[in-house]
Amino acid sequence: MSKRRICILGGSGFVGRHLASALGKENVSIRVLTRNRERNRDLLVIPSLELVEADIHDPTVLRKHFGESDVVINLVGILNDPHRDGRTFRRVHVELPRQIVDICRQTGIRRLLHMSALGAASDAPSKYQQTKAEGEALVLDANSSQLATTTFRPSVIFGRGDSFFNRFARLLRLAPGFFPLPTPNARFSPVYVGDVARAFINSLDERDAYGRSYELCGPRTYTLRELVEYTTEVTGHKRRIIGLGDGLSRLQARILERLPGQPYSYDNYLSSTRDNVGTTEDLERLGIRPTAVEAIVPGYLGNFGARSRYNEFRKEARRV
Ligand SMILES: NC(=O)c1ccc[n+]([C@@H]2O[C@H](COP(=O)([O-])OP(=O)(O)OC[C@H]3O[C@@H](n4cnc5c(N)ncnc54)[C@H](OP(=O)(O)O)[C@@H]3O)[C@@H](O)[C@H]2O)c1
What pLDDT digit, counting tens, does each position of 266-294 carry? Predict the structure, then answer.
């Protein structure tokens, strides 16, 4: 029997790399579509992976690649909208999934997995969460006997190459003895990227997963202050964490979103005004025992910044 062909959008990102590594051990062929093939060439260490430079917003391009696939996985997402008016959030989180669903139907794709986010809700405070909810809803609505769809709603995801612990580690290293932390009481249930990747893989042939959404949460809930304090312990960058009240958190977000690279935005601030917590039930339903932060983070955080993303990825690919 020929190998199942899986087309991944967003497969070059943090989650995508871990998922591609894990899929590399399965009997499947993987095609990752990226805007920049050269920058992501390191993915080619996975023998069953094909890396294709493509404009995924172009329906003709999607039609070609979906026509040559059996399964589509969409991981594309952005945390910040460069226009700050929600236009790019809509394009990436709503218009793209709509187009993916349409083209899955046209090309006879039978299985679509889609990444949403835990806080996604139509009445959520941030545009990130609102647009994620809209995209997720239309993917779930598309579930039918021809096209089985499943969505995933992770809390913050950690693991080698993450942008949560690694970012705080970098910021703490630069901080002058104290560290002003916005929304210190925001709560999260961090989930391990290896468990997220496994959830995608285990759901592929799981009939109960058709038409449903899985909440992906780790075994413990922490406040943001606890997670940042933990980062100081692991990295050895002892800093006094100064939790900012609501007004100063807003002000900091307004300032930082104007800096190059938008290290933090007002929309990020709005996202963290609601708890990002849940249970491990859905991971367990997929046969996964959730991994604790403390079991994984010390293994990569001590060396943050010492290795390039490329080396980090090679190491991970060898490990899985
Ligand atoms: N990381 C977390 O803690 C977390 C938590 C909850 C939900 N999620 C969701 O999980 C998914 C994956 O997250 P991640 O952390 O792996 O993100 P990531 O590292 O930023 O990767 C996202 C990928 O999407 C592609 N992409 C981004 N913007 C695009 C655009 N405008 N047009 C086309 N492609 C674009 C990029 O691929 P190319 O550059 O190769 O084209 C990139 O590799 C996202 O949907 C995110 O919202 C993540």
Answer: 999 999 999 999 999 999 999 999 999 99
Return the higher-pLDDT residue of 49 and 303.
Answer: 49
- Residue 80's domain comprises 4-155+191-217+278-290+308-319
Residue at 173 is within a domain: no
Mean pLDDT, the chain, rounded, equals 94
Query: 183 lies in a domain?
Result: no
Ligand 1 interacting residues, C-beta cut-off 6 A: 10, 12-16, 34-36, 40, 56, 75-78, 92, 115, 117, 154, 156-157, 164
Binned at pLDDT 50, 70 and 90, residue 68 comes out as very high
Residue 162 belongs to a domain: no
Q: Structural domain tally of the chain?
A: 1
What mean pLDDT is predicted for residues 127-145?
98
pLDDT tens-digit map of 71-92: 999 999 999 998 888 999 999 9
Contact 32, 51 (CB under 8 A): yes
Flag whether 273 is in a domain. Answer: no
Which residue has the least CA distance to atom 35 on ligand 1? Answer: 76
- CATH code for the domain of 22: 3.40.50.720
Q: Which residue minimizes the CA distance to atom 6 of ligand 1?
A: 117
